[in-house]
Amino acid sequence: MDSMISVIRPDGTADPEQDPGLPEEDLLLLYRKMALLRAFDEKAIALQRAGRIGFFVPSAGQEACSVGAGHALRDGDWIFPSYRDHGMALMRGCPLETLLGQIYGNAADPTRGRQMPSHWCDRSIRLVSVSSPVATQLPQAVGAAYAAKLRGEKVASIASFGDGGTSTGEFHAAMNFAGVFETPTVFFCENNQYAISVPVSRQTAASSLAVKAQAYGFRGIRVDGNDVLAVRKVVGDALARARDGKGPTLIEALTYRIGPHSTSDDPTIYRSAEEVAAWREKDPIRRFAAFLSGRGLMDDASIDAAAAEAKEAVRKAVEVVEAAPPVPFESLFEDVYAELPWHLAEARDALLAGKE
Amino acid sequence: MDSMISVIRPDGTADPEQDPGLPEEDLLLLYRKMALLRAFDEKAIALQRAGRIGFFVPSAGQEACSVGAGHALRDGDWIFPSYRDHGMALMRGCPLETLLGQIYGNAADPTRGRQMPSHWCDRSIRLVSVSSPVATQLPQAVGAAYAAKLRGEKVASIASFGDGGTSTGEFHAAMNFAGVFETPTVFFCENNQYAISVPVSRQTAASSLAVKAQAYGFRGIRVDGNDVLAVRKVVGDALARARDGKGPTLIEALTYRIGPHSTSDDPTIYRSAEEVAAWREKDPIRRFAAFLSGRGLMDDASIDAAAAEAKEAVRKAVEVVEAAPPVPFESLFEDVYAELPWHLAEARDALLAGKE
Amino acid sequence: MPQATLLQAIHDALLEGMARDPRVILLGEDVGREGGVFRMTQGLMRRFGQERVIDTPLNEGGIIGMAIGMALNGMRPVVEIEFADFIYPAFDQIVSELAKMRYRSAGQFTAPVVVRTPSGGGIKGGHYHSQSPEAYFVHTSGLTVVMPSTPADAKGLLASAMGGEDPVIFLEPKALYRTVRGEVPEGEHRVPIGEARIARSGDDLTLVAWGAMAPVAEKAAGLAAAEGVSVEVIDPRTLWPLDIGTIVGSVNRTGRAVILHEAPRSCGFGAEVAALIQERCFLHLKAPVYRVAGFDTPFPYALEKSYLPDPRRVLAAVRAAMAF
Amino acid sequence: MPQATLLQAIHDALLEGMARDPRVILLGEDVGREGGVFRMTQGLMRRFGQERVIDTPLNEGGIIGMAIGMALNGMRPVVEIEFADFIYPAFDQIVSELAKMRYRSAGQFTAPVVVRTPSGGGIKGGHYHSQSPEAYFVHTSGLTVVMPSTPADAKGLLASAMGGEDPVIFLEPKALYRTVRGEVPEGEHRVPIGEARIARSGDDLTLVAWGAMAPVAEKAAGLAAAEGVSVEVIDPRTLWPLDIGTIVGSVNRTGRAVILHEAPRSCGFGAEVAALIQERCFLHLKAPVYRVAGFDTPFPYALEKSYLPDPRRVLAAVRAAMAF
Ligand SMILES: Cc1ncc(C[n+]2csc(CCOP(=O)(O)OP(=O)(O)O)c2C)c(N)n1
Ligand SMILES: Cc1ncc(C[n+]2csc(CCOP(=O)(O)OP(=O)(O)O)c2C)c(N)n1
Ligand SMILES: [Mg+2]
Ligand SMILES: [Mg+2]
């Protein structure tokens, strides 16, 4: 259980035993989405540095995880993401404007500026609202899966979270409930080696995170989280098993966050430059590019073109979103309840009166 | 890890491989304390049925667990018990009057009638105040052990809890912290097959409770919880390892609660008579009596004498405790803070004034 | 109309709700095979199956988290927390998730979960089987907090909660489970959320009390009547959002108010009611708004009777207000 | 006396406390290697070692539970909860264990744990990096709740908390961490728990505010002064047990009171303060006790500025009280 599944071998070819055998267009789609995600993150960080947005949680280095997992999802599946999984949203077709609107928190944000940047949601793809408290979404993913199972629907739920998330009470509750109720749930742990500054070696004394599944009576698998094909394969299999009534799976994807925890973080305090450099070598996008080149599906020119295209798409979306007005003031009081209760109506009216 | 350690074999002799090799006086002490515990429980239930106390949590059937574990403890060790571990208190020398005073909640109760029956404590033996919320004592046991380790003391802490307790967030937190900080903590899980009405098969899908230790990177052991020598051996070894700096252990003791969950419970709703009868056959006291008889240490007469002696000790203690007056009314407001704050002084004075 | 205890009324609301709406699911510790430690859900698992009446592992955060996920996916979960005292392990799921789901997603996701739990003292349960946590939930924006005190209200309010779109913390006064009886409409019966009940009319003083304190208030009103003081007793039934109109209307007429609750006094819900009354009825008040409440101590075992407000303590406050 | 920010003052109290008393241990997420997400504990791990400055796994219940166990066994743990918003997973340990340990054991076991946590808004942190949970803890019998607003008080109150025998919830107004500076006594400095600070003297109205709202109150008092209204500003510093004497003394003199806090208004600590004032100052009050507070919504991101009370909103309440 402490061994790790990979597809793309050091020489850039695929291990035929594990290769998910995706059609070419899907391979290219995976690449384009990873490039888009990287471009999105770079832009968002630049926007934050420029003071145009307040905060951001980047996923650079972990693109293979969210994009690979996102590709394995089907219509009807439920997504309970963490703040670092916008790749899943992109993969499932969430428009760039929705994500960008959220980080601007203006009228372009379908969630009306209610939450900090990186806390998006999209009902149309069943991607549930991201929450800051770590791992609270896990038992919810079990509940959504239970409901689907009860109605006889062949869908699954995926909950994603970090290595730090495995220490929470919610992880324990969710894994245990999923085991007991055999819900179609995939627990997708992106082990990026750190919970802010705390290394995974101080997070748990277990030999791996995947081994924790034994405590709940179901399968745990470790996968190379910088190998998009391996992630696609392992998550795809787990989802298929779930939809087929074969119960939950815990997947530990080994990866690394290349950048800071968030735009508020300074990782140089707790990580060495050598460590970061070593992981940069394993960059999931470059690694996949090498594979695609080897297969004759891409070359330097098309790689550059993909990057440029991604950049341009993000630039355009930023333009649209920046043009949106601020959220209307009255929205402050809405959506607390289904209907506006008297005390919030009073508060709103008093504030409006005071404003004049 | 799913196999189970026993000492007393079906033929009543001890397995020499596992026998803790206790001196005769200790063997007899174990027996007397188990008999005392049984007598105590029977009396307490009778008192509750008679309306002389309000509530009680019996441990009948599980005597080998708390008495065996209690015997393995040494001066200086910390005890974080559940409500079903008065056997540990008896074993460590807590007077019967303290336990009985607590269940009467009168002036004979050193804790001044503050808690429901079966929620005792005794500072002099480092037996921490029992709490109803399941498993909250577990991370506390880790903290106490950490403090001891920091000061270089060769003592350990033991936390006991039930099968249901393994599902709580506190179990997960405590096990994980103990693993990371390598604290001298023994997690002693009395798996009595039920959490009130919920069978352990619906509590977790894991193959055993002991296997859960793998999720935290340390040892998990299963022991026959109706075999006092096996419990003594396994807990003794785990405590010795802990005191020697070799880290925590999870022990799952397989046992059965013969009676109701508490005096408020009707177990016939959720358990079959056959199941109970089968476990009655494995009664830990009778089993140990057979062993002692085989060793020539007891016979029918001394077994009867031990039971009579235990009964008499309990009867005497009841007499003493029943004679105590109610707790003084003002004590209601004390011990909330180290010093009585103005608002509680005011409340007390107002109530006293209103009473006149 | 047939007579029922509070316990039967709640049981009936659950049974009828499940029969009416296949989306309703019950979950909690011991709710299935055993039918709950108070036997509230007795027979429901046999009738509706173990998929819809679920015995869960021992983890309240897991229970409420799972219920939220079910609700997101179209079900109507009704959770039982075995005692209100054991709701705290689920506090994060309630405060961070249940209460905020609608707001943070701007209505894209909602979690209409009903959390039922036996609350309050009166059964000699000590610290951990007696607490009244309503103030924590009133202070948590996004929650509806309900606490009935009569069988008919219990049935009708639970039906409304189960049929509503918002998460509801439904606190059940366990002391009244089997000690009050009353007429309960058969079949579908709803009491609207957010409307108080005038338990007794009066002219001299307004006494606001909920849960197991409502009958205590009525007894105190009886004692006061014997002294010539006419007390109006208001049971808010829905603690939040509060029916402030009914309370203000009453106090503006009587000029005096006493609030009564079991929970510790300081920062209890009584503080909010008192603050609202003095804000809105200032010129009508002939005396301060008094509070009679549990003491600011953990709930004691032996001295439970001294801890819990009784009619005589309430009467003392009524007298003080009248004499002010 | 040297000048320091609130952050430096708290850092100094921790450093000096650790140097003075080997029983003091710090624990929390990221407090060690990183020195905390706000850099509050920077350098302490290097100085005192990783046994006494402990980076914990991500589990707040575990952190506080472990701290309780340390305290039972003679240590003086000071916990950092990374943001007050993440204290809820530890709510059970706080409410069921920390607050009740002394009472339930009749003093045999005590848990003098200090729980420090950055609280309140002002950093554009949205729902989960902005909450002000003080009311939950004031309502929990057995806890002491402290919230300083000046560097000197922060240092002195934290020293008192660390040296005391009771568990303390120590809420730090993160908005003020680096934005207020003030003189802070060097070396051992204690401010007694339970004594309010009169931040500004005045005769016409008493304004009670704590944490990051204390400076807002002072600004509002300045605006009011320009209109000829003399406002006394009281910062309780210790929220519970409250220094009611100072507040009542002031209100009996001014006849008017406004309470100001960030937390949602309903069932907030302001309700308790208002209820106490009207109980004790009834005949002196010339106007209702008004409250200016956060709205009863989850804490918003984009509209944070509209959510948080500002001097103009406070001034409107002051005017209303004066005009009543
Ligand atoms: C319950 C809770 N405690 C603390 C935090 C503060 N915090 C935010 S992210 C984080 C680390 C999470 O690490 P991990 O789960 O590994 O996810 P990653 O950020 O590495 O993707 C912490 C401690 C939080 N958000 N929620
Ligand atoms: C947090 C919490 N939830 C629910 C309860 C109610 N309750 C009391 S005992 C119990 C079952 C405990 O089972 P187990 O841990 O197996 O211990 P046992 O009673 O069998 O010794 C439950 C659910 C509780 N005390 N605490
Ligand atoms: Mg991580
Ligand atoms: Mg059990």
Largest sheet of chain C: 7 strands, mixed
Overall shape of chain A: it is globular
Helix content of chain C: 25-40%
What's the tally of helices of chain A? 12
Tell me the span between the first and last alpha carbons of chain C: 44 Å
Give the number of DSSP strands of chain A. 7
Kindly report the oligomeric state of this protein.
heterotetramer
> What is the overall pLDDT average of chain C?
98
The SSE order of chain A reads HHEHHHEHEEEHEHEHHHH
CATH architectural label of the largest domain in chain C = 3-Layer(aba) Sandwich
Bound molecules: thiamine diphosphate, magnesium ion
Task: Tell me what you see in this structure.
The complex is a heterotetramer, with 2 copies of chain A (356 residues) and 2 copies of chain C (324 residues). Chain A is an alpha/beta fold and 356 residues long. Chain A folds into 2 domains: 4-325, Thiamin diphosphate (ThDP)-binding fold, Pyr/PP domains (Rossmann fold, 3-Layer(aba) Sandwich); 332-356, no CATH class. Chain A contains 12 helices and 7 strands. In chain A, the strands form 2 sheets. A 5-stranded parallel beta sheet of chain A has the order 1-2-3-7-6, sandwiched between helices. A two-stranded antiparallel ribbon of chain A has the order 4-5. In chain A, helix 6 (169-181) links the parallel strand 2 and strand 3 (185-191). In chain A, helix 4 crosses helix 11 (300-322). The mean pLDDT of chain A is 97. Chain C is of the alpha/beta class. Chain C folds into 2 domains: 3-183, 3-Layer(aba) Sandwich (Rossmann fold), CATH 3.40.50; 197-323, 3-Layer(aba) Sandwich (Rossmann fold), CATH 3.40.50. Chain C has helices at 6-20, 44-48, 60-72, 91-98, 101-104, 134-138, 151-163, 213-226, 244-254, 269-280, 304-307, 311-323, and strands at residues 3-5, 24-28, 53-55, 76-80, 114-119, 144-146, 168-173, 181-183, 197-200, 205-209, 231-235, 238-240, 257-264, 290-294. In chain C, the strands form 3 sheets. Chain C has a 7-stranded mixed beta sheet with strand order 3-2-4-5-7-6-12, sandwiched between helices. Chain C has a 5-stranded mixed beta sheet with strand order 9-11-10-13-14, sandwiched between helices. Chain C has a two-stranded antiparallel ribbon with strand order 1-8. In chain C, helix 2 links the parallel strand 2 (24-28) and strand 3 (53-55). In chain C, helix 1 (6-20) runs parallel beside helix 7, helix 3 packs parallel to helix 4 and helix 8 (213-226) packs across helix 12 (311-323). The longest helix of chain C has 15 residues, at 6-20. Chain C starts with a strand and ends with a helix. The chains are: A alpha/beta (356), C alpha/beta (324). Chains in contact: A-B, A-C, A-D, B-C, B-D, C-D. The interface between C and D is large, with 47 and 47 residues. One thiamine diphosphate sits between chains A (84, 132-134, 161-165, 192, 194-196, 257, 261) and D (29, 58, 82, 86, 89). One magnesium ion binds next to strand 4 of chain B.
